[in-house]
Queue: 2 jobs
Job 1
Amino acid sequence: MAEFFAQHMPEWLAYLLAALIHCALLIQVVAVGALVFIWLERKVAGRIQDRLGPTRVGGKFGWLQTLADGLKLITKEDLMPEGADGLLFRLAPYISFCASFCAYIALPFSDGWVAVQLNAGVFFILAVMGLEVFGVILAGYSSASKWSLFGGMREAAQVVSYEVPLGMCVVVPVLIAGTMDLVEIGRMQQGWFTNWLIFHDPFTFITFWVYFTCATASVNRAPFDLAEAESELVAGFHTEYSGLRWSFFFMAEYGSMFAVSGLAAILFFGGWNGPLPIADWLGLTHANHPVLGYLGNFLGMLNFVFKCCLWVTFMIWVRWTLPRLRIDQVMKTCLKYCTPIAAVMFLGAVAWTYLFPGGVTGLGTPYGDRYLVEVKAPAAEESPATEQAGPEEKTAARQPASRQPAVKRSAAGATVARADHQKMFAEGDR
Amino acid sequence: MELSALLPILLGIAWLLPLASFTLIVLFGPRMGKHGVGASYLATSAIAIGALCSWFSLFCWFGHYGFKPAEHGAGSQFAAADHAEALTPALSQGEKETATDHESYPRAYTNDLYTLGQFGSLKITISYYIDALTVGMFAMVTLIATCIHFYAIGYMHDELHDVTDHEVTLSDGHHLHRPGRFHRFFQYLSLFCFSMLGLVYAGNIAMVFVFWELVGICSYFLIGFYIERKSASNAANKAFIVNRVGDFGMIIGLMALWGGLGTFAFGDVTDADGKVERGIFSQVRDPANGYALAAPDGMVRSAAFDAVEEIAFEHPGRLMPGAAASEINSRIPSWRADHYGYWLLVIAGVGIFCGCVGKSAQFPLHVWLPDAMEGPTPVSALVHSATMVAAGVYLVGRFLPVFAPEVLLVIAYTGCITLFIAATIAITATDIKRVLAYSTVSQLGYMMLALGVGGWVAGLFHLITHAFFKSLLFMCSGSVIHATHTNEMTKMGGLRKKMPVTAYTMLVGCLAIIGAGIPFLIGFSGYYSKDAIVAQALSFSLANPLHGAVFFYAAVGGAAMTAFYMFRLWYMTFAGPPRDHHIYDHAHESPKIMYRPLIVLAVFAALVGCTVPDWFPALGGLGVQNLLEQARPAGELGEGVLMAGLAYPEEHASHAHSIHVQATVYAFSTALGGFLLATVFYGLRWLNPADVKQQFFPVYNFLLNKWYFDELYDFLFVKPAHFVAFLITFVDRRLIDGFIDNLARWARKLAHFDDLIDRYFVDGLVNLTAAWTYSLGSSLRSLQTGRLRQYVMLIVIGLVALSVLINFASAR
Amino acid sequence: MNWHTFFFLLFALVACGFAVMVVLSSNIVRMALYLIFSLGATAGLFFLAGADFVGAMQLMIYVGGTLVLLVFGVMLTAQGPFVSMKTRGGDWILAALLSGSLLAFLVPAAFSIKEWTNAPPAAAEEHHAAAGRGRAEAKVRFALTSTPAENADAAADESSTAALPGMAAQPATATRLGMGLLGVRVDKLEGRSPELQRGMSGYLLPFEIVSVHLLVVLVGAAYLARSKRRATR
Amino acid sequence: MEPVGISHFMTVGAIMFVCGVVCMATKRNALGVLMGIELVLNGANVNFVALSSDFLTTNPARGLGLDGQFIALFVIVLAAAEAAVALAITLNFYNNHSTVDVDRADELKG
């Protein structure tokens, strides 16, 4: 896109413009997503509690209710407690939101549809989402309210603790894929749904559920919403917030939910690849025509968004089903259950990939050997052919004949040779 | 698998397994089962497996070479040399086997297993020398050892728990109470088996010596098993010290051999690069010379060193130029003709025989063996009758090719004297084990006599048969002792009703040892071996009337005495009414584990001497005699060089009908006489032995006191040694100690002075330094402010200063 | 002025500026906040220097872990008098003197080596020749393709046209770092220079040591921070 | 200013380092000192990473290569460990003395 612009305007303007367009598109996901999910949450909550939920605004289903709420929030007075640390109090919601939003930079929505195809994408997303906690902590501190402070403290303890099992869970699919590039991981799972990493082996299957638990905890959703436990802490860290600032926290929360769901979809559920390779059957590939490829990608994006929504819905369902845990239970869940299980799963996955490098079922294409590609001496000569080749060529590359390198290294290293830090500003759209 | 490869491995396993067992018991003995009972299982299974290996290799040997000795070429004098000619080339080529020539079968396998070290030409190796004798010995030793191990499990069961030794009284009047030493007994047994088998397995004289000493130390341990008993520890010491005397001679012999021959190995050993190192046998009896005994070049050269030096001076130049060497070599035959070096050979032979005298308890070193009966009876059965004491005989047999006729004569006389003395003592002894001990000494004398008169097969045959029946006798006596808790035959009697198995197995043993049998038809094992000895003695006496008559009559008289004292023993123990009813009432048959080995050994004692007749299908010729015949050393024994007229007849000559019949008749009739006499005195009790005792009181006393050997030795050696020790103690205590005490007194005074310097001068300096350091430290202490930030500042200041310095330094 | 320079300036300014503010601020909570920004911008600098993995690590462990811990500690102890503890004037003066002198040595030292300034050699030919060796061009362009096919084409002639000179010479680091931590230095195989290819020493042992070290620290920290009152009760 | 090179990165590193040192030297709050340490470590890390870069220098062969990044990684990890222990010590200190003023922690002075 930026290249396209660059033909018509100064380069810096072109890149600026491209970046802004990306930002705009991504912020839509967060904002519109939040709108939809808040509505969804109210509807689901209503149904679970045997009532209807919003019904009035925007027709039969009340689907404009969130918008109306938003308008209300905007018009509310922006209050700040007297003893509050003004700067931090104002800053906190933005930090939260920015951190949540930043995660989207590396989240691919479809094959190549990513703002920046980062080499360490998984890592980046985890890192950035971890920053969200700062907003909560600072909000808790700066509110000059003990409820808020308690909430912030709980949040800090919880997030720091849950980052450990979360990171370990994420490592399991990364280990199998051999790359941390989310686009690469997504591409590896193309084809039938048996290729999805969750079906790779029993350990990934269990890992997913641990991941989901930890992700729920790390985005502060019930039953792990200790930081805003209404029954104990009034409203936790955002007790003193009102109006638009308050809504930023919520946007951040829903944004994070969507982001971790997206991460789950890519790491475990084939990302943008549907259960059946319908796009391939229809010929919607770049190999046929760029436009067809674009259509295929669009189909993939719908797939991806559907999966994300599924998991967000699941989180909502969990929230309205399970009671809140006590803080000691939360920590116990993390340290005594999630972490050891994740560790065992990690070891198990290592053993599995070592013992069955070609897979066991014969159902899915073995992709664990993707990272067993020969080193080509100078990095500059590393052809991205493997990456860009069609499925047939990929299969060919996986033939045993190619599995004799003396020194093995990651194909991910080869394929992302060009995915450089500079691409942070680059157009990933094709 | 080739026999040449199989035998060393099988026998090596049999040899090393007891070592493993010993090691394990040493390390874990007390923890093996309850009170270490597992040690016995370990040791027994080790030697049992060894026995299996040994017997398997015996079968292999038979399978390969047949039962009979190789054919002799038409009774010619050189027949033995004939087949031995084939022997030695095969030896020299290691394990080469040419199946085409029947005569060229290797009769011995020898090779180095491992070189321990090489010091110039002296090579110390672990090697093996395996021939029919080795295989036979292995089979005998392991079988008897296995039986005795089983027996010992029962016999030593007292040691499984705490033992109160009634023969040891402590200073407080109580009897000694000590923990059981069951595992330790089996540990020693294993070590002994390892050593004994190693001795038989050994392929060089150095290794033989090592194992020789090892069996000696095992014997020492085992005799002193009840170490708390004064008599036991004394007996152990006695055995050890007496053996040292013999071993001293043996070392001289070894030195003479090595100095003359430059090797320890028995046979010719081919090393890795095909170089043949000639062994002792082929050097002493050169195959090229028809295996005739001749002083080897080395001995000749060292004996004629005057002439050698002269030649060396005649050829100026250093380090024996080639001309001198060739000159010397050319003159060696003439020197040899002048009997240069022959004395060395005699010295070597006598020296080695000295070792055998000690180990085999020959006169005059026989005194230790009866005392060695202080050890547990299984030990007496295994070590002091069947195997270790026979090792001397074995070594004489092994070294027979090296012994000059003069040496053989010494051996014969020694054996003869021993035979007679021991037999006479055995007649009067009342301790059941001592009777057997003197019997053992006497029988060993028989063997020595046999070897000394050139009866190679006869002596070794008797060694093997004797091992079976003597171990059987000892074990039976052990069984009796086990039942009655006494050694005194005067307290026994009539026990055959109480312990029939023991009684009748012992009867078999007695019959075997006296050589009972139906003349010319069949007999117990002793019948064959003793006949062979008597026949050989007769054959020798025909050739040498002077010496031979002594030997022959000693052998025959010995047979009579043997029969008398053995049946005296049996009758006193088992026959007639009991002499001590208290003991009789408490006597009982031994447990199964003890009497079953007796039965096994009784079968062997009865049958081992037989040779399966030739007409018997498949097994014709199977027998110990034929097996030993296969190992007979090559070459005739020859004639005396220093003693003219000393001639050794071929052993085959004694098989001649005239000699054979004569010998059998003599041996049988004398034995029968002895038997009848014993029956009259002790079995039927028609005559009272006490009358005889009174009548021959001085002789009886003389015999009862064992010819006063112990008193004689005490007077000759022990007393003078004590006196010298007393003198030395006096010098030590009065003169040397006094001198040293004075020195110490002076040193103390000096030290006192030194102490003053140390205290006031040196310490003062050190204290001063310490005080300075202390004051410096306390003044510097205030620098340590404890202010973290100050420290950081100082670090930064240091950093900046360092940068400045570096800047200036690099700017320059 | 290109994007690279621009972002460098941006991140450098943020990093240095907030670092200075950490020093100047007397409120401990504010300090923590500034530190977060400073270290976050440092992560940006790492990305700019091509160390994307280290940058992500910086974000995840440093900013996301260590600093959360720090803030946690701040909040546990941030009671009245300790929130802002003023530094005495004398200290300030001393610190300013020292920092000034330290900077006065460090900054010239940073510029003391010619090649570190990355200034192109005088002649333009050399400039191009250097580009072939993988030296970064001052002018950074971006590989932008709209289709995979084009992408492949662009990648195929990457080595010749050096569309992304700097990047091409420095491929993504995550895998190679991972392999290096496992003891296999694949980066040394990539022909950076024969000088560097010598030896294949990896970092397996340090990696293991650090792992164990972390475990020890975890236990030790838990031990130190445990509640002692409960034990006496 | 252009192009950006190792020197520029190192300048940033130097500034962060000096800030950290000053922070350590002036802050009385133990946690402030801790932050100073973090800054110092980061300043060092910037240098390591810059030196490991290929395109910030005209002679990448003389750079640290990937080793610089390895060291930076280890620094980060060890800094985390250090922070954990330091925080634990600080909290302990706070428990025992009810203060986090490092100037009060001078019981071992000479």
Job 2
Amino acid sequence: MMIEALIGFTFVAALLVLLAPDEWAGRLAFAFSLLPFAGALYLWSGFDGAGNALTGGDIAYATQIEWLEVGGRTVSWFVGVDGISLPLVVLTTFLVPLAIVSAWTPIDARQSQFYGLMLFMEANLLGVFTALDFFLWFVFWEAVLVPMYFLIGVWGGPRRKYAAIKFFVYTNAASLLMFIGFMSLTFALGDTQSFALPEITQAIASGGLETWFGISPDRIAMIAFVAMFAGFAVKVPIVPVHTWLPDAHVEAPTPVSVLLAGVLLKMGTYALLRFNFTMLPDQASALAVPIAAIAVISVIYGAMLALAQKDLKRIVAYSSVSSMGYVILGLVVFTEYGVGGATFQMVAHGLISGLMFMAVGVIYNATHTRMVGDMSGMADRMPVAVGILVAGAFGYMGLPLMAGFAGEFFIFVGSFSAPALPYAPLFTALAMFGIVIVAGYLLSAMQSTLFGPFELETDYEVGPAPFHDVAPLAVLLVAIIVLGVAPDIFFEMIRDAALPVVEGVTING
Amino acid sequence: MIDVFSYVPAIVLLPFFSFLVALGVGKHLPKGGAFGGIAATAGSFLLSLWVLATVAGGEAANRTLYTWADAGGIGPTDIELSFGILIDPLSALMLVIVTLVALLVHVFSLGYMNDEGETGLPRYYAGLGLFSASMLGFVVADNLLMAFMFFELVGLCSYLLIGFHFREPGPPSAAKKAFLVTRFGDYFFLIGVVAVLATFGTAQFAGEGSFPALAEAALNGSGSVAWTPGGVELQTWLTVVGLLVLGGVVGKSAQFPLHTWLPDAMEGPTPVSALIHAATMVAAGVYLVARMYGFYALSPTALAIIAFIGGFTALFAATMGLVKDELKQVLAYSTISQYGYMMLALGAGGYVAAVFHLTTHAFFKALLFLGAGAVIIAMHHNEDMWDMGGLKSKMPVTYYTFLAGSLALAGIFPFAGFWSKDEILYEALVHGLNDPLLLGGYLMGLLAVPVTAFYTFRMVFLTFHGEPRSATARDPEPVRWNVKGPLTVLGVLAVVTGFINMVPVQKVLGVEGIDLLHLWLDNHWGGIDGLSSHHYADIGPYSSGYLVGGEVGTVLVGAAVSLGLALGGLLVAWRLYNVPSPTEHTAKLGGIKDVLYNNYYLDELQVWLAYRTEDVAGGANTFDQGIIDGVVNGVSSVSLFGGSRVRRLQSGVVSQYATLLTLGLVALLLALGVSGGWFL
Amino acid sequence: MVNTLPQVAALLPVFLLAFTGLALLLVDTISPDARSNTSMAVVGALGSLAALAASVWLVVSGTGSADTGGAITLFAEAIKVDTMALFFTAIFASVTALVVVAAHDYFHDHASPAAFYSLVVFAATGMALLAAANSLAVVFVALEMVSLPSYVLVAYLKQDRGSVEAGMKYFLVGALSSAIFLFGISLVYAATGSLLFAGVAEGIGSLAGLAGVAGLGIVMIVGGVAYKTASVPFHFWAPEAYEGAPAPVSAFLSSASKAAGFVVAFRLFTEAFPVGASLTAGIDWVLAFGVLAAVTMTLGNFAAAVQEEVKRMLAYSSIGHAGYVLIGVAALSQSGSANDAVMGAAMAHLLVYGFMNTGAFLFVAMAERWGVGRTFEDYAGLSRRAPVASVAMAVFMFSLAGLPPFAGFFSKYFLFMGAIDNGFLWLAAFGAVNSVISLYYYSRVVKALFIDDPASSSSLDAIDVRPTGLYAAVVFAAVATVLLLPGFGPVIETAEAAASALF
Amino acid sequence: MTAVAASIPPQWYLLLATAVFCIGLFGVLTRNDALYFLMSVELMMNAANINFVAFALYYGDLTGQVFALFVIALAAAEVAIGIGIILVLYRNFGVTDVTVPTEMRW
């Protein structure tokens, strides 16, 4: 019942914060958000899962309660964690308190609503990462969008309304596509009478797919795979369905960007791993080349776009597209290092992009501009914040002994000689070139904004950032370095859960 | 007996702690944390000496200390990614060099930074500490991945230190360039690392299961590799991998065409330049090749390419050094050129020669940079040699040590540089006689000798001789012990280091046992199997050929030629510049002059490339905003337009509703009727 | 316990509603002045709640369900009480209760509110009867019992040109449709010689060359149903009627009356015109409904997406939802394994819809009560002054759009699921695309309420009163909409049981 | 009498009813005046009645006949309400032309 307690408490906390007066809503929300983190650490400390939850491994903290039955199929409250979902749970509960603290400075209106929605979103995110029943999962998956819609729409920048609706409609359209794909899959599984993901996965693995309204099993699987991939691709996002992301990021307030990049994008990759690559590995390996091509395009194209941006947030946003490309590559190669590295990269990128957005936000708080051209020599005025920003940027460039390098390197090692992917070395080498471009645009942006003589058009004095702005940055940086020096903290359990996925695939040719 | 090797991590960690201390509480410490750094590097230096002694005592270490990650790869076993230490004669020697230079640079910094009242000293010493730590970690690395990681950290530190004066426009740009250009090289290095792991399932340097050993076994058929890309033959693939790793070397060791960052890097504080050029960053590249020489030796093609790049860079950089006006610029190009020599040596199978030159160069180049630093202090940070002159009498210590360094650099007997450079050329010659590409490298290296001597002494004469050409030169600022001390130490070393490896003497006079470095690297006192020079010679492709008079004759001829050329260059410089008031003679070069001034327009080329890339990015952005996002927004506007059409149906006139309603019903009737065949 | 009571007790909810209506008339005659508003509202509310309680109790006690001896038929089989009938009676009763409570505030200053309540309750009675009809005759009579009061209700504001125009259009289209419906019945009678569903089904099974007549009749009946459910092409009255009518009436019509139309459809096209028999007779009404469903939801959503007035947007959206629910009939198939699933989902959706849509219209009623205006712009920033109501409205909007964690999500997705399960992927796809569009315009309301800033500082001053009844109704509807998600299990299972009893 | 009625083949009744229905429909579609509209609708309903009565005879059961009576009553009620609505329509718009009130559209 730990997971239920975790989610339930977060919901309650959200409610209480909603009702709290604005003055101390922020502090209260922070205090509350620490408990889920503690809870997640407790889950971690007592983690006894083994293998992959979907392929019949031992699920930790599993509870399955029948909820309702429809069309002869049971929908149940079924939650639990394995080596893939637990790190993401920890990541979520870890990022939210920091994001809340980073909101203290910028959020100055309707605080209680803001923090309440943040916690509400956290609760749903936890649900997404722990749910093991499709319907339950889908409820949380969709429910994440609502608070996000408000967070962008109410507290966002000038074009917030456009960004919010775009995000909302775009991602919902995607989920519907995915929904239809998954449903046709379940109905082709004639004798599986539940929506429990493990059951469905194992049924498919044991050839449970039947001809359905004259469509052959293979074709159904392929249709479902494509539909789900397309649906999740929007969430990740992958080129060419990425255009909602920069708008959303640019308009969203800093703490929301942190969660958007840090956790929400991971929902997409997590779902891809769970559904497409774990349930339908053979379709995945049949489509390996096009998927890898998309991944590489995302990496290079996203990086090129970032290179062309002048808005610091846009830069980081596009580089997220680029980083997610690595994850896709890692998933499609079906090697232990590849899949495990992809999962690890989710966590690593969550921390690093969170740090970047936070740091940019701290500068924005002081300068009220994010345009590269508008400022220079910020290092002179806010040395600590800038110092951490620089460190974070190098983390983003994949500096060894920081989390980002571990994730990317695992993926590269896994993918370079992957038998599941034709021309693997070529794809890998191409994707790797991203590390050069990323260095290019981050260094240029830093040079012109952080260094050189201090210049900024303001009528007030720009001083060092307040402590509660810098503290979260420092915490994140430490976490990134720790994870980079000792990736096994997560990687051990991740690869334990990733192995069955890898073994699930039959390599053709 | 206590195990010294368990203290090796301390060698790396001590400077790291000094980094933490300086970063954390540096502003509350005297001298901004300088003493912490000095203490740390001193400690590392002593430990390194101890390690050196132990290795001399016949011990060596190749241990895995910490598993970073471990998961299933391709092939039978997991790929384990780990950290460890590999202590053999080579790394032990390198440890001593690095720690010594780092220590001296720390001491010198007291004079150069503190006494000059620089701000941000904690940041500076933190940088130095991290820099030393990274380099030491790189030196002791027992596998390619660990090496790569610290290689990257070295790059980071160079970025931080070159950009130390971040409030000025120049340094940040130079720092960016340094990191980017080396990053470009490291891109290939990274592919190389991944390729090695994929191919052999391990990245260990030494031992039975190490990748050089596996490659060797696979080539002579007594073993096999885990994976090779489809359709690529093993020998070719190994060459490709070697060249990929070489990419990183070319970047860090500033070889053509990735050398352009190094002259700009002079924007950093002079002690940092000394550290970068003598012992850390630039040395890292060459050291890496030496470290995995057992792998390169298996691929003649790779060796030939290394040799040619080296030789070409040696000459190419030297020519650019001819016309520079700033003191440090000249030294910068001399560095590029000297590392070119080392690459030539490695490519030519002169493993020992390369390490030898690495050693001597570390000392005399550190000396030259620190000397230059002293001059710069004296000149109130004016680096233009045309404003100097006549400093000889004002600052004798600096002058004589600097002179020793210059003689070494120019390769004048019996200074350190002579021995090492002579051996390189000798190796290139004897091996090159059977290998045209190598011979080309040799000839370029030989041509570079007089050029080097010329620009070196042009520098010396312009700086120290003749009449003072500016007010500051007439009354330079004095320097203190903390500057003179390091200079003296290095000056001595620049003179004597050559004697650790007097191969020519041995060959000519037949005195055994004076080629200490050869014996040292040949595991004469012990080491690790498979990492010895003769093993490299065995697996290497080269056979020696001799000119008239067999070996001895070749030795003498070679030495004589190179020494003669060096002296020639020196004399020309003497004639032109050792006069009371020297003038520019670059006009004599005519058109070439501009080319040399502008470094063969290579920077322009790279800038041009950067701009083109930005254009492409801009195009991609337009495409993204216009086409891809346009489609997205198009969908919504189209549906809204459709909606505004649909609503027009609702005309508000009820009788029209009746009509439409009836028509709809009739349509339905007809459709179903026809399909159902009611009217038949 | 059914055995202990006379069979006719199964009609308890209907009787309760009828008596309530009469009681209201009585109260009105006793105290005919405007002050009777409150007392009328109380009586009406109590009566409808009693009916609700009764129907729920009957459902729980398993009256008319398969496991307690099957449906209860009364009056020479003209009436048939089964789970579905009671299920829908519950929907009608709850909507009525909400509307009555809300109306108390809406008509607080109306000259003669009394008649309103009795009309609403009588209409509800008709609906309840409709749900239990087992003969075409009863269907028609009950249908008129629903329609006639509705015409009056729409035109209830006699001084308001909008209300009158709406009433006129509603009435004329309604009259025409019922005529068509009636003629359809007569043709079916002509072809089959019976008005009882069972008899009709029999006749359909053995049509001797009269397939054409029966077909014409059935299609005309489809037309009648389409009118009641506001589906294309009989939907034209809906936007005007809903826009012009007093908001509580719009709520009543768009929720209860629509549901009434569907209960007829469900019964007719399972018991009177079974799929198999009709298809063999060459009467492919499944296709007809499929086309209607697709066209209806598309038209409704596209038109709703471009409205300026919230009320009219809701009107079109309710057309769109009619399209969704039509899937419940359109996705039936002869050999389909999920017939009961899809129809049950449709019923469940109607129940949920009864709450969320009524709530939405009642929020509009509140806005009209405040007099803040009708367009999206007028709603800007309402959340600043009326947070509770605005949150409730947001709940309704997201639920209508089919977003979790609200009930509309489940009902809608079970609907699509059932369609997919029965092989009607294309219908589900239509529904999905439309849901995306609907998301756009529903979120426009939320955007106006929460995100947009008020047009002017004074524009919110209109919100000076806190109409208790309206608030109560809206909040109750919102709570129900939320609680129906966790509590969806019994609902969907009852609905499926009810549906499966029809096949 | 009954024999006569019964001797007429049912198709004719169908045709008659359909004809009356179409006439009514025609009226609905062509007349703009609310009252004419109403009358035409009545006509359509009576067409249905013809069917009921005729086929009640044809099948020999009374259901249709009885139902016809129901329908007549309902039609009357409908007319009553219709007239009422047309009355308020006239009060507000001053016309009985149904094409005039078009304040609500699109």
